[in-house]
Amino acid sequence: MQKSLLALAVVFAIPQAIAADKPADDGELEHIQILSHYDKLRTEAGSATLLTEADLEKFEYDDIHRILASVPGVNIREEDGYGLRPNIGFRGVTPERSKKITIMEDGILIGPSPYSAPAAYYFPVTTRMTAVEVFKGPAAIKHGPQTVAGAINLVTRQIPEFSEGAIDISAGSDGYQKAHAHFGSVVNNVGFLLEGVSLKADGFKDLDGGGDTGFVKNDILAKFNYKLQQGEFDHTFGLKLSYSDEESDETYLGLTDTDFAATPYRRYAASQPALMETEHQQVMFSHYLESDDFTLTSRVYRNDYERAWKKLNGLINRQFASTGASLSKTLADPDKYDLEYRVISGQQDSVSDGQPVLYLNMGTNDREYYSQGIQIDGGFDFELYDLKHKISAGLRYHEDEIERKHFEETYSMVSGVAIDTELGIRPQTQNLESTKAWSVYIEDQITIDALTLGVGVRGELMDMHHEDKKDLTKWQDKTTRIWLPGVSGFYQLSEESGLLFGAHKGFVPSSPSRSASEELETSVNYEFGGRFNDGVTQLELVTFFNDYKNLTETCASSNCGENQQLDEEFSGGEVDVYGLEAQFSQSYPLNLQIEIPYSFVYTYTQSEFKSSFQSDFAQWGDVTKGDSLPYLPEHQASFNIGLATSNWRVTAAVKYVGSMPEVAGNGQVLSGVEVPSSVIVDLSASYEFDQYGRLYAKIDNVFDEVDIVSRRPYGARPTKSRQVSVGYKYQF
């Protein structure tokens, strides 16, 4: 923590002088951004959305959940209110820890262990991103390994051509603070960029017995490049270094519905010891080669991630045995499990009249990850038989590993305070999983008059290993080989409009511990739609149909009601997911000085299991054919509208999320229970003082709406309460 704060202080000490950032085209974006900035009709096939730096600055969000509200086809399950560990899905896939989408930073896999354990407990700080790209359908064929839903690419700041930098400071309610600075220049043909971010908040919940419920996050980035021209080729050599850490007082423990209705921001005394500590480092070397019709990008990368999360696992007796009443059951029916509820809420001591009653079983999930690899991506344009071809191809060798070192400790509830009994630790899950994977893709986009037809294939070749360190007889090596074809097209009706279509095969790798004989999760995904852009009005409508051959789920701490099922995988058979995505934006000139920009995003989604079955998975239960997927709202919409001039802007964002079931079928604790629909309004305003910087203010959740966003893993969890903040940004 100290070294990250020191590095941030160094960034702030750099002398300050810049003009405002301006959008750049693809060639100026260090070859890490995929979509074009151009304000014209995009002719690529496949559904793709680009959020530019200007889009991100409108609300200065630090939460990726709020950022993605303006992207159609995204389904989210909120958890902590700050987006510390996002739950993101596309087109109906489970949002649980974003494990079924491919997450990249600057085009490189950024998840802690994308093959062996894809649950994204690490997610980059979005504050320092200058663009966010979302790919769905055939547009995601170049990005894997998870291809059933899509990919998200987070784009970091480019090294500037001239000396420039900025500072950004903000403070607000609930102890919110942000300090962000960057500076870059070119010296003797060597470019560099230094950037630092520190975020913190005391939290918006009230912990029984007192204490913070917030977080502190620090993030440091350093980039260097060297440019060289040799004949017709331009070379760029790059080095990227990053470090981040986090401490957050977060828990999986929610509230009973009754307590939520009375005090929604309460946190029970049993969650007092909860603490998440993480540390992440990245090193990446890159080389970019470019000529008039040829590009080649080579990257060598390494990511290391460590995390330890202490949180309440349940209640135990003096023999360290479970009481049989899980936290989910206790909070769903506190009258039936009255003793357990009173201990959790601090009303009952663990020892009464000298006799042990129930102790708190605090579990620490300690994990270490690494991922490393070599990735090469190339492009080549040529003409053959009067047809224009655009070849894209890539090859990646990737290794990743997760080592789990879980343990439990006994705490005692004493007069409303959770106290460590210091009886020592009890080792729990102790295992190691690893993957060595080759990935390859090739796509040819052929232009025939007004039609651009893309034909491609992706291959994933994986060797996986699992070993139980507590029982050395339990181990497995397995090999998976799969080819994923895809076809896409765009037919340009005019300079402003066109039709898009596509079909591709999707895939999600199974965990190294899952038997090689069990069926993989695959899907065949279809989409059809249209796009319009005349420079003033932008409109895109896309229908989609995802045909899952075998939907799978893995029990994690965040989505299961029983700890005994941790890391167990379940199969749900065939599932259909279909719907409509719409996005529209326009700007209406009120007069010569004031414009009214507005945009609308809508997603309609339906899903159904194609067979009946019985499952122990907490989110499925006993499923009847036709049941819908959990945590998937039928309707979602967002509407943004503002007033803008050359030096000031006011913008309001309205987000609607429809109700959604907690469980697909019957027989589980939360069967028949729904997450209610919600409407959240955010407001932002800014004023430019020309060369003296920009002042901005924002209100998240203007009307202080209180809604249940989830009852996972244990009990009802609230939306973030109203947060007001004011900031100042100076560019030099």
Structure description:
Strand 33 and strand 34 form a beta hairpin. Helices cover 5% and strands 54% of the residues. It has a 22-stranded antiparallel beta barrel. The chain is mainly beta and 732 residues long. It starts with a helix and ends with a strand.
Query: How can the largest sheet be summarized?
Result: 22 strands, antiparallel, barrel
Low-confidence stretches: 1-29
Number of DSSP strand runs:
41
Mean pLDDT over the residues: 92
Tally the helices: 6
Alpha-carbon distance between the termini?
A: 29 Å
Q: Which structural class matches the secondary elements?
A: mainly beta
Beta content: over 45%
Specify the helix fraction band: under 10%
* Radius of gyration computed on alpha carbons: 26 Å
Shape: globular
